[in-house]
Amino acid sequence: MNYYFKGDFSLVGKFLPLLHKEGLKAFKLVIFKLDSNKFSSQDALILEQYYLLDKEFNLNTLRVVNAGSSKGDALYVYDLTCSTLYYHAKSKIELKRVLKIHTETSKKYVDSKIPYLNKFLLLSYPIPTALTSNISVEELVSIMQKERQDLYTLGTRRSISVELEIKEGNTFVDSWGHTLNFDSLTSCIEYLSKLGLTIKRDTLTKYIKNEKVFHNFLCKYSDKTLPDNFEEVGLIIDEYKKLKVDTYLDSLIVNRKNKSRLVKG
Questions:
Q1: Which key words tag this protein in UniProt (predicted)?
Q2: Are 131 and 83 within 8 A, CB to CB?
Q3: Which long-range contacts (CB under 8 A, 24 or more apart) does 100-105 make?
Q4: Which residues does residue 116 pair with via DSSP β-bridges, in sequence order?
Q5: Which of 69, 123, 189, 211 is positioned for an S-S bond with 94, CB 3.0–4.6 A?
Q6: Best-predicted range by mean pLDDT among 58-62, 105-109, 163-167?
Q7: Separation of alpha carbons 188 and 211, rounded Å
Q8: For 35-68, how does the pLDDT look when each residue is reduced to its tens digit (9 = 90+)?
Q9: Neighbours of 25 (CB within 10 A)
Q10: Could you give the CA distance from residue 116 to residue 104 in angstroms, rounded to a whole number?
Q11: Are 160 and 184 in contact (CB under 8 A)?
């Protein structure tokens, strides 16, 4: 509300020009207090949507409630052994707002088996055996900020080393079975571009996560990017990723079985 009280805004829409002309005295503020023991945040959104659609309130130009971070896929922040859960976010937007992890960064690291800031794993699914950490959000943010500063000092924050394995049947280079090393995704993409192959950074990241071959090139994160004894954790992640897929397929089968059918009499 401070934004409106300062009066530093462009006179667009219906509400702002009227506020500028008539002042706050032309309006009244009604606050709905919902008991958190009886109502959920979703109930508040439903109430807001009701009033947005009410024609009596004719200054609303947007008729759909902004659900904010309630939309999106959940993300989980674990330690490197997947034994401790540090934070559970309902979306990438929440992760950015609370832990200052940019949405593009979380997209790159989630389910990738690559440690974020050398201390954390970002997963899109819960690990049932993990225990919830007792450190506060403020402490977690402080730890992450210190790691960011350390990596900035070392000049390694934005670079993740990758390897490009040349698979048999590759028609762009002859060195089948060899592996090329790059200090970042960008340099790998530039190399592929010189060969006449175009791939976006986000697409290559997805290929790495899914171990998908691109024109008989297999790109993966370098082993030196990973901490020692990380192979076991990688197996844990693979196992739960498989469990997540199997659970999803089972739910589809159940939904098909329970789907109602129209029977002609």
A1: Endonuclease, Hydrolase, Mitochondrion, Nuclease
A2: yes
A3: 100/141, 100/144, 100/145, 101/144
A4: 120
A5: 69
A6: 163-167
A7: 16
A8: 878 887 778 878 888 888 888 888 877 777 766 5
A9: 6
A10: 13
A11: yes
H and E: helices and strands count for the chain: 9, 7
Residue type, 112: S
Please name the helix (run of DSSP H) or strand (run of DSSP E) that holds residue 41, with its range, or none. Answer: helix 41-53
- Range from 1-15, 100-114, 132-146, 166-180 carrying the lowest mean pLDDT: 1-15
Rounded CA-CA distance 85/76 in Å is 7
Whose CA is closest to 92, among 78, 111, 73, 114? Answer: 73
- For residue 50, which of 32, 36, 68 has the smallest C-alpha distance? 32
- pTM > 0.70: no
For residue 125, what is the DSSP state?
Answer: S
Most distant CA pair in the chain: distance in Å?
Answer: 77
